């Protein structure tokens, strides 16, 4: 009787262990996928191809910029988020093509393509030894603003067994009572004073 | 029923099992080598690994053409526009005598770049507009129906940091020639911007 119970216990334990192993095994595309390099705002993050340091996040109900000597204003039913960063290539010239806003519940927003040819936005051409300002523009749902992550890839395709930057956007603009500060208009022209 | 002693594995069967096991030691690495050969070969050959050095003022035969670096200049640029702070404009221009070359084939993936002593590479930029001239970029020359025997001017512009600009050298990459590439020993010459 005791022996049978022991056998039964062993079978149950084996089943549990096997189930856990099956559940925790990564799929092939996860095993060979991107290698996240995590960081925070105001902190230099290095990947194989480039360095990035996120300086600022701004939220706005409207964005304004000048294109073909006309002032353009875009409104949104959600929220505009503008992420400003400094980027440098490491060993060879390259371009940053993609950026994503990963919301706190896992909603992923691609870059907004509503503004045509805005300055300093992807594709951002980078050269070794020449740091430059790059900006990422997103149109998000207001509840996706806090606790988000900026994900950046170089070039076009998703990285395979290569670095992918994940930067926690943890220094958001706040009002005095702790609410997120949302500006009425953010200008996405070249920042004044950044260049002479 | 079948006791372990009254049914021994037949001698030749166990021998063959052992041989098969030993064969795996050879076969597995062999299979890996055969299936990965193309990838490894492409990786080993498809890079600029072996520089063909070209002396100052000399020319070199490469991809069915004779390459001569005619101008290699650096110009300080005022920051502004698309140019990052601390950048130097570097211009490289070649006189290329096209001999028996089918350019779209012999110059495939043609790229001119700058190389620093520590191995960093700068690609040509289109952020800076140069005055119009007969010179064209490498890729545009490749598709412009050049007659064999004629000489064309190939020009590219780069943005490089001021502190390393003087140590940069020009490299020419043509995919059919890889892993060989041309590297010109000539240092860039500092020019002043015309006011």
How do you describe this structure in short?
The complex is a heterodimer of chains A (196) and B (195). Chain A has 196 residues and is mainly beta.
Description:
The complex is a heterodimer of chains A (196) and B (195). Chain A has 196 residues and is mostly beta strands. Chain A has a single domain, classed as Immunoglobulin-like, CATH 2.60.40.1240. Chain A has 2 helices and 11 strands, in the order H-H-E-E-E-E-E-E-E-E-E-E-E. Chain A has helices at 2-24, 28-31, and strands at 35-40, 45-46, 50-67, 70-89, 94-102, 108-110, 124-126, 132-140, 149-154, 163-168, 182-187. In chain A, strands 1, 5, 6, 7, 9 and 10 form a 6-stranded mixed β-sheet that branches. In chain A, strands 2, 3, 4, 8 and 11 form a 5-stranded mixed β-sheet that branches. The radius of gyration of chain A is 22 Å and the shape is elongated. Residues 192-196 of chain A have low confidence and may be disordered. Chain B is of the alpha+beta class and 195 residues long. Chain B has 2 domains: 9-45; 50-190, Immunoglobulin-like, CATH 2.60.40. Chain B has helices at 11-45, 103-106, 138-142, 162-165; strands at residues 50-54, 59-62, 65-76, 87-98, 111-115, 121-123, 151-161, 169-173, 180-184, 189-190. Chain B has a 5-stranded mixed β-sheet, with no helix packed on it. In chain B, strands 2, 3, 4, 7 and 10 form a 5-stranded mixed β-sheet that branches. In chain B, strand 5 and strand 6 form a beta hairpin. The model of chain B has no long low-confidence stretch (mean pLDDT 85). The chains are: A mainly beta (196), B alpha+beta (195). Chain A binds chain B through residues 90-93, 125, 127-132, 195-196, and chain B through 78-80, 84-87, 113, 116, 119-123, 125, 127, 158-161, 163-164.
């Amino acid at each position: 009787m005791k022996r049978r119970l022991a056998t039964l216990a062993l079978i149950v334990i084996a089943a549990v262990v096997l189930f856990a192993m099956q559940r925790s095994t990564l799929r092939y595309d996860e095993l060979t996928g991107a290698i996240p390099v995590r960081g925070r705002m105001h902190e230099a993050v290095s990947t194989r191809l480039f360095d990035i340091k996120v300086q600022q996040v701004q939220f706005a109900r409207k964005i304004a910029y000048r294109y073909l000597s006309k002032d353009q204003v875009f409104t949104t039913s959600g929220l505009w988020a503008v992420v400003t960063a400094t980027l440098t290539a490491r060993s060879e010239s390259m371009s940053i093509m993609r950026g994503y806003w990963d919301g706190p519940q896992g909603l992923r927003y691609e870059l907004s393509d509503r503004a045509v040819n805005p300055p300093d936005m992807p594709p951002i051409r980078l050269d070794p030894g020449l740091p430059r300002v790059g900006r990422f523009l997103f149109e998000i749902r207001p509840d996706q603003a806090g606790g988000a992550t900026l994900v950046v890839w170089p070039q076009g395709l998703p990285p395979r067994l290569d670095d992918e930057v994940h930067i926690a956007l943890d220094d958001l603009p706040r009002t005095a009572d702790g609410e997120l500060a949302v500006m009425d208009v953010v200008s996405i022209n070249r920042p004044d004073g950044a260049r002479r | 029923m079948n006791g372990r002693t009254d049914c021994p594995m037949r001698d030749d069967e166990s021998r063959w099992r052992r041989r098969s096991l030993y064969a795996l030691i050879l076969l597995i690495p062999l299979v890996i080598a055969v299936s990965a050969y193309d990838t490894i070969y492409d990786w080993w050959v498809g890079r600029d690994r072996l520089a063909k050095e070209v002396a100052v003022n000399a020319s070199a035969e490469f991809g069915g053409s004779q390459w001569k670096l005619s101008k290699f200049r650096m110009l300080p640029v005022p920051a502004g526009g698309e140019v990052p702070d601390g950048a130097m404009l570097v211009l490289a221009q070649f006189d290329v005598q096209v001999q028996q070359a089918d350019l779209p084939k012999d110059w495939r993936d043609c790229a001119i770049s700058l190389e620093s002593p520590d191995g960093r590479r700068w690609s040509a930029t289109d952020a800076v507009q140069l005055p119009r001239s007969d010179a064209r970029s490498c890729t545009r020359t490749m598709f412009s129906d050049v007659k064999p025997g004629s000489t064309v001017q190939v020009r590219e512009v780069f943005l490089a940091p001021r502190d390393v600009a003087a140590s940069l050298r020009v490299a020419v990459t043509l995919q059919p020639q890889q892993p060989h590439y041309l590297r010109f020993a000539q240092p860039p010459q500092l020019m002043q911007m015309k006011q």
